[in-house]
Amino acid sequence: MKVGAFTFVLHTHLPYVRKAGRWPHGEEMVHEAIAETYVPLLNALYDLKAAGYEPKLTIGITPILMEQLADPDVLAHFEMYVEERIALIESDRRLWDGKDARRVALADFYLAFYQGILDSFRSRYHRDLLGAFRRLQDAGNLDVLTSAATHGYLPLMERDSTLYGQIKTGVDTYIRHMGRRPQGIWLPECGYRPGYMKEGAPSYYKPGEEEFLAAFGLKYFFTDTHVIEGGQLVGKVAGDAVGPYGAIPLRKVVVKPDTRPGATQRTTFRPYYVQAAEVAVFGRDERTGMQVWSAAHGYPGDFVYREFHRKDPNSGAQYWRITGAGVDLGDKDLYDPEAARRQVQVHADHFVSIVVERLREWSKGHDEMGIIVSAYDTELFGHWWFEGVDWLKEVMRQLSVNPDVELTTARDYLNDHPPTEVVAIPESSWGAGGGHWTWKNPETEWMWPLIHAAERRMERLAARWPSAEGEQAALLAQVARELVLLESSDWPFLISTGQAKEYATGRFQQHLARFNHLAAVAERGAPLSEVDRRFLEQVAELDNPFPQIQYRDFAARENTPLKPLTEQG
Questions:
Q1: CATH code for the structural domain at 447-567
Q2: Which amino acids are annotated catalytic?
Q3: Which of 65, 307, 439, 476 has the most C-beta neighbours closer than 10 Å?
Q4: What is the CATH number of domain 8-434?
């Protein structure tokens, strides 16, 4: 008899970097993630299946990342990237041969790693990573979530047209790549906006995000622990996080009447319906999350694991281990892959014991089967925490045969255990402070009036050209493409964190300039000049995601009831 259920929820996202520079900020971000995270994760899942286990995993892949993982140029450049890594590490090996046996052994370790990645990419997955994920989805091992098209931070968008267009473009992209309609969604940055009354003359109702999700047949999303349970902010939202990591505006929130029972004592061990919509929300489990997220207490900081920040000046390979707390980068000891492998087993055993213990405790006082939702950024595993994919694999192996725990997906759990209570959740995110500060602060607030002006300009274009055809339709589609690209949450995020302030500022301004130029051409309404046509062709080649994007999806929707999926055109 199972005492409870467990699912990992991995959020997989990178900004649109196709042909937008290389190292340290540009297309190599995708190449690194494919080599260090995505291919190793696929290998782990397929290896488990080959060994007779049935891994289960909930994984979101954002639409803009799907487009890049399917792009021929990105994939060709990825192969060149791995071949270059192999060549550089071979040069390290020649340099150390006969001088340092431990470094030669580490070079051999990395050569085997990268050669294995390249072989898996070419021979095991036939250069089709999304196809590999889709096969696991169709076999019931994965619940693949969608997201907003470019990971736009939805609570700070001004116009309902943007929420509608971003979500619809995301759903359409998912269908094109995954062969079915999505059931779940990862809201970008867990950013949530409830329904509220827009002040003005007259005032009118702005739907909550769950109402947009319901309109597209999406049945569930995810939020952070504090949103469900309340209390003190801890973990990621409090700034204690491994890897790259405000005030909420006052709004007259509308709580819709609901005849279902309200939540008596909120807990992340169960999902809830959100207000009157048939859309459920899962809360992230903080206890298991801290075991990985926490920079102070998490597994990735163990001293035997690979040091992320020190890289060889010749090859960029990471030959060192963390070594100790506060040890200077120049004093790090060499990495020992075998010692790290043994520690992965220790940490997997520990994590599984926590899961079992927490679910047993929950089951003592409840008749229903609870679930632990353990949510992380996918790129944390393999890229930031090099041993992380091996840890995921071992945890899934153990839980898939554990007599007490049902290893599942969010979709399967929700189908078997639908919510029995309803909640109204606050405006929130899983960013610093649990609010909007990460994306709107003194460093980034200049961006938002420009985004809002672009939203309104797109609405005017859609109103002027309700049924454009031919060249005008292609032009308007590219305007919509530039709109969603400039709305990406990555640009304010990278500015706020200081990781790539100049790069992100330049990328935002680049997409904004392209949007404004193409919008001005469209507003003229005349046939395109040869100069305009060449500009459109150049921009369309550089910014080519979402071939199915519909500019009409960004038409004005203020004070317009949302139609259910069956009534949409």
A1: 1.20.1430.10
A2: 189, 377
A3: 439
A4: 3.20.110.10
